[in-house]
Amino acid sequence: MLKNALVAVLLLTLMGCASGLNSMQKVEYQAYENAGVLIEEDDPTSAALFGLLPGGGSFYVGETGLGIVNLLFWPISILWDPISGYQGAQVNNLSVTQYHIKNELEKEIAVLDDQLTLGQIDNKQYIVAKRKIEKKYAY
Fold first, then answer.
1. Under 8 Å between Cβ of 93 and 42
2. pTM
3. Which residues of 60-83 are buried (b: 16+ CB within 10 A; e: fewer)?
4. Which residues does 43 contact at the CB level (< 8 Å), separation at least 6?
5. Mean pLDDT, the chain, integer
6. Cα 17 from chain centroid?
7. By the 8 A CB rule, do 61 and 45 touch?
């Protein structure tokens, strides 16, 4: 009975460890990377290498709970922690980049809104400038 429970926990852990980017996120990640705007907060290669240590890949990307599980299952976790660490770093990098781009877009639009409110530009100039800003941040 205990053996079956351990096998079940191991299988559940394995299934949840490597949840990386979906296909649309991979395209977006690649677009950011190609445009040179991807913010690499966590290095995926380092995360994979740390995954060879007990829970290292998960701890490196901020997945403390998963890191503890991988620590408990070490050395078996070497089979999945480098992969989940690599993918976790990519997910973190995508999230940080999306947040940064959204904030930059909002800042530029706010400046433009202020210009319109203060009468420095008219509606037509506002629309043209807003489209340029939106195009600038469309990846």
1. yes
2. 0.77
3. bbebeebbebbbebeeebbebbbb
4. 89
5. 88
6. 15
7. no
